[in-house]
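Risk mitigation, structural track. In case the binding assays with adenosine-5'-triphosphate fail to produce interpretable data, a predicted complex structure has been prepared as a fallback.
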Amino acid sequence: MALLELSNITRDFGPPSNRIHVLRDINLSIDQGDFISIIGQSGSGKTTLMNILGCLDAPTSGSCLIDGEEAAGRDPDQLAALRRRKFGFIFQRYNLLGTLSARDNVALPAIYAGLKRSQRSRRAEDLLKQLALTGKENNRPGTLSGGQQQRVSIARALMNGGEIILADEPTGALDSESGLMVMDILTELHAKGHTIILVTHDRKLAAFASRTIELKDGEIISDTRRLPLSTPTPLERVEEKHGITFYSDQLAESFRMSLQAIISHKLRSLLTMLGIIIGIASVVSVVAIGKGSQEKILSRIKEIGTNTISVYPGKSWGDSRSGRIRTLTINDAKALGKQPFVLNITPQTSTNGNISYRNITLTGQLNGVGEQFFSVDGLELEGGRFFNETDVKEDNQVIVIDNNTRKELFPDMPLPQVLGRTILFKKRPLVIIGVTAESTNTFGPDSGQLRLWAPYTTVMHQITGDKVISTITAEIADTVNSQAAEETVTRLLTSRHGTQDFFTMNSDSIKETITATTGTMTLLISAIAVISLIVGGIGVMNIMLVSVTERTGEIGLRMAIGARQSNILQQFLIEAILICLAGGIFGVGLSVVIALLFNHFVTDFAMTFSTTSIVAAVLCSTVIGVIFGFVPARNAARLSPIEALTQK
Ligand SMILES: Nc1ncnc2c1ncn2[C@@H]1O[C@H](COP(=O)(O)OP(=O)(O)OP(=O)(O)O)[C@@H](O)[C@H]1O
Ligand SMILES: [Mg+2]
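Fallback model:
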């Protein structure tokens, strides 16, 4: 049985309207162990015929039997398997991969055949030695002479066995001496049992072969045998391995190749990553800032510790009529205070005015409050005492000031001496009985506002003459539902006033509002960050498309030596994922740097990272790699080997 059997092969190119018939009705039988040269003028169809013989190209019609098996009509991966098993290609321009060492170039076909890494290297080194290239294993093709490069490519052709060596003008780019050396090697390989098919337009080189086939305008015009067919010597077989490690090995190889591609284009890879880095860093930072500020606010609310309901006149904040609504009274507060769920209650009224002590005069707000105010508001003392029920009942002229006021009015006086001194508010003397600690439960940074508290009775009766109060704040028991309590308060006051001319707020709902607001903000800014991630992803896709175009020749070569479509897909997909993943990791790193700077300069609250957001960010960048890398990778995998090889 013939090793290769072509019958009625035709190969046409171009659209039906403009068909070029390159090969017409080729019938050819090639036996094992033969040494054939195909000659003919330029354009006679030698390369086209060679590509069909080597399963790189499919004929338009006709049959092509390899070892008695039909090759025409097989899918790309089956053809790739055939090429791996049977053929070794030697190209005119060597087609070595510039980024790989001689050893790795030679070993390349065995990757796709599933040979282990150590075995591959050993075999590649053996082959290089046989081709007199000892010591050049680590050289890149660029540092080798033309003759040496062609010998590396011969070694590569032999890597998987190379039962049939297809050499298309292997000496075309070489000087005559190196050319003769290549011919000697081919003769030697023939003697060892390899079937050699050599394409040349040089009759002198064709004379090395045992049989010469001449093509003209796509037809065989002569077929002459110079030497009889020698009985074939059996060749050593290199078996494909599909062990357990096969897939992980292939994956590791794809990974290595991708890494190499990224490293060999450092700047480009970095710029591509930049989009992802910025996107991920902004997502992670924004989430951390949102979480940090939310935690801060919630912890401040928690410091109040209690659940409070406040009643204000008017319909809501900013109601212009609230100043004229004068229905909220002390009696309302007293009535509310009788409710079983109310633990503490304080009416509140306030007035602005001048505060003076000796020659210092300041402007501040005096709050008239009940004795329970301090526990409702969670205020703490630095020194002295808060006023009590008696103070309120008897309109005592006492005042509690905050630390800011103390610093302003008594700059150099120690705290104990401040207590008992009399200050004037709107010219009324008030005795200082207490100083509060630095307040922690106001929202936002301490504004430096002066805060003073006197019994509301004192304020209303002696200073303002008001009959109404501005706020009632009730501390309610933890055990009651704050919403139900709020409803009861509303019902009670509505019945007292005859109409609902007030509104209530409870600290629970404030808490919820804050959580919801910061949540919405985080979501909003994250959405913007996600858009930037998508833009980054498009950048990655763009670069991957460029990379595929740039490396079309490499893809063609890999396919020629037996890479499956999945191998190519994997390689480019992994490259995209690696870029995005690295971008994601750098992005998280960048946001950590941002956080360090932020926490250094902004003392109000700290950026808080959540593991979820970091994991999500890294996962997200991987997904972007898969999504935006897929199309370019699939494009690469779908290239036809012969088109990819010729398109450089
Ligand atoms: N993909 C293609 N599309 C259209 N025409 C093609 C294609 N490939 C080859 N041809 C045509 O087929 C003819 C034969 O090309 P081929 O490459 O086989 O010639 P060749 O004998 O190898 O020539 P050379 O000695 O110059 O390498 C040429 O006329 C070429 O223009
Ligand atoms: Mg050619």
